What we know:
alpha+beta; about 20% helix; 6-stranded mixed sheet
Amino acid sequence: xxxxxxxxxxxxxxxxxxxxxxxxxxxxxxxxxxxxxxxxxxxxxxxxxxxxxxxxxxxxxxxxxxxxxxxxxxxxxxxxxxxxxxxxxxxxxxxxxxxxxxxxxxxxxxxxxxxxxxxxxxxxxxxxxxxxxxxxxxxxxxxxxxxxxxxxxxxxxxxxxxxxxxxxxxxxxxxxxxxxxxxxxxxxxxxxxxxxxxxxxxxxxxxxxxxxxxxxxxxxxxxxxxxxxxxxx
Length: 233
């Protein structure tokens, strides 16, 4: 967990996926590690989600010294009679404490076998979030979308193609020998985006061996950096 703690302290807000701990103790333990050096992070977490007995949770861990969580985090309420997502996206809003930037985040881990359909359904989630937060301009879809390989044709046109994909097809987000851009950050408004986005190679950053790297995760974190002094919404 020490490596995860270092990674999280690098950023103001981190979306965490694939939390499968039925005891509900792993996330508080991770937060203790993050805050062990005097940092002041907190988190919000979804209910356990999934169509089968194998459930997952999403969480946002955020630095309370730089951002404030606002509103009521919640999972996307699928319209009656529909079931587009294996695990519904988790929606939460944040404001920068030292500037004007505010944002609504939508994180999702798509089901690999249904990745194309779920990615195309995310436009409905964005529209829902826009209706819930009509004064907001910045909505960001993020997470392991399985948006490459046999799961998704990354060169195809999707219902999210009109938005700005700041993690593009050139990046490898996997720590193993594959070369796929499964993980994405997609912006509805790029006006506050600094242009700085990419993959955190924590193996290089912390001098880890291959075995140490994959023990942490089979994915690298992806990131994007935003201005906090130019937002007017």
